[in-house]
Write a structure and sequence with these properties.
599 residues; 43% helix; three-stranded antiparallel β-sheet; elongated; alpha+beta; 18 helices; 16 strands
Length: 599
Amino acid sequence: MALQTGIFADVIDHEREQLALERRSSLENPQTPLSYPAEWLLDIFNGGRTDSGIRISELTAFQCITFLSGVDLISGKISSLPAHIYERILGDTGRTAHRIAYEHDYYDLCNLEPNVEMSWQTFLRAMLIHCLAWSNGFSEIQRDDHNGIVAFWPRNPAKTRPRRMTESLYLPAVPWRPFPVNLAAGELVFQTTDGVDDHDPQDLQQNIAHGARLIPAEDMIHIPGISFDGRIGQSAVWLARQTLGIAMASEKFGAKYFANFAKPGGILESPVSAAPGSPAYETARRSWQEAQGGENAQKVAVMPQGYKFTPLSHNPQEAQSVEVQTFIRTQIGALLHIPIRMLGDTSKSSRASTEQENQELLDYTLSPWTNAVKQEFKRKVFPHSGVGRVPRNRFYLDFDTIELTRPDAASREKFYASGKQWGYLNTNDVRSYEKLNPIADGWAEQYWMPINMTLVTTPIDPTHQDGGGEGEVPQDPATRAYSGVWRDAFGRLLTREKRDTQTFAACFGPVCASLAATFRMDAQSEMRLSSESREQSAPEIDRFLADYYRSMEKRASDWSIEKADELASAELTRAIRAIRVAVYRETAAIKAKEPVVIR
């Protein structure tokens, strides 16, 4: 659709600004004379000249290996990260939880196939390359009859730019947007000449192109880079053209040097004077180049009588080629915020710092771009119905960066062991980190609890530390099994005149040791202790039982034969609870020391 003149205004008059900069460059650069307008056109459409004499544009900048490597690293790494649609859920405790919404209608668009012609990685990588070089990444949203999104199409940043409407405009329905749109004056739109609709079959035969078309802002994903007004990004290549020009010039110098087999040129003197451009002059020059140029450079030269060749000595070290390349690599690394090691400089890095450098790459290089992608997709693909009003869209796009900063096996082992011991990881959580299938048994979903810890609001009562306490406690199966022998031990104690610690150990020792052995077998089975761990001794339990006998001795001052049955039942319940806690605490400590097998 052809656009009417004057119906919109530039958000930033980019062409005039670029042309003004080119003209200033031409005035400053004597290699681009004002009387040669063809050079002006090359400056505008093929990149501007730099002080090194090399023209730099967004496309020619990719001939610099360091810039190409940096852009390829950022775009390739981000596009290879798993992208998921997450749903934000408010849990019962009031905390926000997140889950991957595999069933969402847009999940495949944002994870696998954004359109019928490319994968998600190809699509995102192309858009990020546009962001890094042109500082503008554009992607058009294709919709169906119900305003649902059916595809994302990347748009050429050199052919797309934002505009501000000065008048209202009616856009009729088109195949990629099957409903009309009314654009109001002052509204932001995007003008593009890129897209599959640039030509129709008849126009292709006549080589006639359609004019520019307008895209509503809600149908265009726009990720700007360095921007002075927040609406359009300023080309990073253009702003750093001097540095890129030095890089290209140094590479060109090296290529020319080795093209001559690393041998400098010289001056050929003829015995007869010949003016430059004369037939004799051209014949002599051409004959020497044919005899000594290219593959003949290493052959012995035989010159006619009277000719003299004077070589020109030149040491590449004088130009500091190696130092220039190192400096350029550092400068381009600073431009893209990439650690120098990842651009080929391994002189100041070690394997010990690789994990930290990966974290640095994520924090300072990748995160700004991933956050820009996430927020723009949230605005355009998963928008809220209104600010501060319900319903609010609970879905959003995010990237999984776990694999990027994945530690070594030893570090993961410590993390998993600590997580299980302190109750913030269960068995299936660990298996999910290791990309293993979950265990179907219910125990794999249970979390361990450090039994030597309690809530800060729980009052501390010294009389309850051995397992005592108030409140109704369900009868333990061990109570029925050990009630007879416990009552017999309790009766024998009451008949003793001397009730010291040794007496309590003699009366209740066999029963308490039997209880500890029973609970130990149960704990080892539940926690799946290895055979080596099961054979470990239990000195902690022996010390605990000795302390428990002393606590019983203190309580025995109030015991009487008249309340023997009631006292025996209460003490058995107390003993079972205390011994079980001690045994499970000991078993959990042994389990935490077992090595975690990383498969």
